[in-house]
Amino acid sequence: MDKLFPEFKPFFKDKFSVTALYILAHYQTPERIANMNARSYEALRKLSRGRFTLSNFTQLKALAKNTVGTQSDYLLDQMNILLELYSQLDSKVDELDAQIKECVRGIDPPCLSIPGVGELSAAMILSEFGDFSKFQNPSKMLAFAGLEPGYFQSGQSEYTGHMVKHGSSRLRYALMNCCLPLISNEPVFAAYYAKKRSEGKPHRVALTHVAKKLLRVIYTLQTKNIRYDPTMIH
């Protein structure tokens, strides 16, 4: 694409998005992209669930019409081969995801009873932490995940700062990924998020506090082998 249509990748924040891949698979060349019509836009709008706007559509067509790229059958064939390989790998990933989900449902860990925690997130959390009994308290788990605030001391002054982030980045991703559906589906966590926002915390910081609360709940459920009960959350 750097040679065929170099403006394409910078236009899409995620070059592997469903919309970007659909355009490459169905239109391929800048000339055909520049000639996309209203029917093309409607298909892209539905595929992206409205995120690919008419403005995006118009901008992309203009970029394609004025591209500095070089037309080449060889480059086009190479792109099609890579798209096919990507499709095969993506299919394999879907198969593995299905197997992981089935495995987690079979184990049925207590953390899976939390609204917003799906099978894949639970699998990542369980695999990263391993044996929960090796952690003496939730604070140890926060430290392992890199979610505890940094601690600084200078003379007689001491204070805490931003998250240290020295733990597992995959674990932090899984926990943060659970937060949005959690505050959308669980009133207790939604209220906690709203409280942090009312205190002036930015969205991302408030979600981090939700992730910490979530991790403390997971620790309790897993170590006591009990199911989630919102009435027990403080």
Please provide a brief summary of the model.
With 234 residues, the protein is mostly helical.
Structure description:
62% of the residues lie in helices and 6% in strands. It is mainly alpha-helical. It folds into 2 domains: 8-90, no CATH class; 108-232, no CATH class. A two-stranded antiparallel sheet has the order 1-2. The longest helix is centred in the middle third of the chain and has 35 residues, at 73-107. 22% of the residues are buried.
What is the topological layout?
Layout (H helix, E strand, L loop, with lengths): L7 H4 L6 H9 L3 H5 L3 H10 L6 H12 L7 H35 L11 H11 L8 H8 L3 E6 L2 E7 L5 H17 L1 H12 L4 H22 L10
Antiparallel strand pairs: 1-2
Helix pairs in contact: 6-7, 7-9, 8-11, 9-10, 9-11, 10-11
Features:
single chain, 234 residues, mainly alpha, 2 domains, two-stranded antiparallel ribbon, 11 helices, elongated
Strand pairing plus helix content: what structural class? mainly alpha
The biggest beta sheet reads: 2 strands, antiparallel
Strand order across the biggest sheet? 1-2
In round numbers, the mean pLDDT is 86
The tally of domains stands at: 2
Proportion of helical residues: 55-70%
Order of helical and strand elements: HHHHHHHHEEHHH
| End-to-end CA span | 53 Å
In terms of DSSP E residues, the strand content is 5-15%
Radius of gyration: 23 Å
- Overall strand count: 2
Low-confidence stretches: 150-164
